[in-house]
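REVIEWER CHECKLIST
Item 1: Sequence provided? yes
Item 2: Single chain? yes
Item 3: Sequence as submitted:
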Amino acid sequence: MGGVRELAVPFVVPGPCGVAVRDRFKHLTSRDERVLRAVGEHQGALASRDLRARCADGLEHSADTWASRKRELTKESSSRIAGAITKATHDQWALARRCQAAHIQTLETGIKMLRHRLSLPIGQKGTKRAAGGYRSKSEWFRKSRRLVMLEARHAAVVAEWQAGRVRVVRGGRRLFNTRHHLAEAGLTEGQWRERWEAERWFIAADGESGKRFGNETIRVTPDGEVSIKLPVPLAHLANAGHGRYTLTTRIAFAHRGAEWADRIAANRAVAYRIHLDTRRGRWYLTASWRRPVVKTIPLATARARGMIGVDTNADHFAAYRLDRHGNPVGDPRRFPYDLSGTAGHRDAQLRHALTRLIHWAVRVGVAAIGIEDLDFTTEKTREKHGRRKRFRQLISGIPTGKLKARLVSMAAEHGLAIVAVDPAYTTLWGAQHWQKPLVTPRRTMSRHDAAGIAIGRRALGHPVRDGVSPARTELRAWGRTAPPPHDRSDRAGHRTVQAGSGARGREGTRPPATDRPPGGPSPNGTRTREPSASNTVRDAPSTQQWVQDSLTHTG
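Item 4: Structure as written out by the authors:
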């Protein structure tokens, strides 16, 4: 087929490599809060100073400079706290470096698109695969100025990349810029200041296997007692031996509590982080640990019991169950969600929809869920879809990155594998080959439902169309096929075939054959009256063709 790009091979997505659980500190005393604030401010200042030193090193960073920074921090805290701060600094610098590379790629994509459209004649129409020229001279002029701006910005970012310079804001750049728009954010200066300081605190410690309860800096016992190793300048605040402060409240992890208890009982590493939610005025403790690397199941094993194909949209998941031969089973399922509002609301909506999807997959007994390996990075640029703002908002609203992380981690807890497939042409081919044949008086099919079938078939290793028209397959299941080609004659074979032994409706009743004309004599010689029109729906003659509920073919 001309113009169709080569499709990527489906693969099983690796499972999660870590776990994080959170619980709230309840009934903290005023002294507990003062100590936590003091520790957070002190260690936050050390983390800011270390990040500034790491950014100044740039590409000249080495193991010696890392050890030197850690020694300086140890004097004002402890060796374990210094190790946690330097590790967090390196992770933050590496994240900024990756974001810088992604920004360069975005600029290069925009520059390439602008140069292409500026090279075309004004008013030239585009195609589905390539954008056309600009509509007017004024638009051409504005885009030429934007090209110069993007080229200058690209040159500046590339120079920073080559020099190893990154821009990092502890506390977040968004919150930093909110300081200049307090009225729009609905905050006072005092509220913003409190949130800004809390975001820059640092009360965290990495775990260490072999140590007591898996962490010496922030220690949590099996009965929920929490104690913190205080930095050297704050040792006078200790209420326990060896410079430790024990909180008056107890902690209990409702989610994964048994797994967490097993780890600390075996003295395996557990990392902890304490933070304050200034909006609610609550303190939280987050525990996290690494999982052993689990080898993903083979693709053939994931396909053995069928598949559920899921089409991701801006407001719902469209899912369809398929058997191992690629036949749709039952009716389509839709799992809606609302991604408007706050980030917490969006995350809760996504988790709720995924929970219902996974529970349905467990009930029907499949071993895997097929999804599209989506990435709309190149589709969000204003240079490619400048006038199509609604389309850009639509694809920006689809939760691709968060969906992958959430679905993989949640499915792993129920023993389900995730198979990622190439997203090319799934909606187009699904609507073309599967939407119309599956419509019945009791079933409605959208193009998204048909796309779920296409995704599931691709995850199972079957082509979307499979070389057989679904309409012909449907007729064959009922014991008849459409007339063959070659002038609709019998040169290509008989017009009908016998239904297979597993076809639905094969043993169904047929209208009785009779040679008696309407109104003619009955077998016993008596004459009957003309048949009257039926007054009931059940007795009314059907004018619709037979349509099966699912397509059953094993090719």
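Item 5: Key structural point noted by reviewer: Confidence is low (pLDDT under 50) at residues 467-481, 513-528, 530-555.
Item 6: Recommendation: ____
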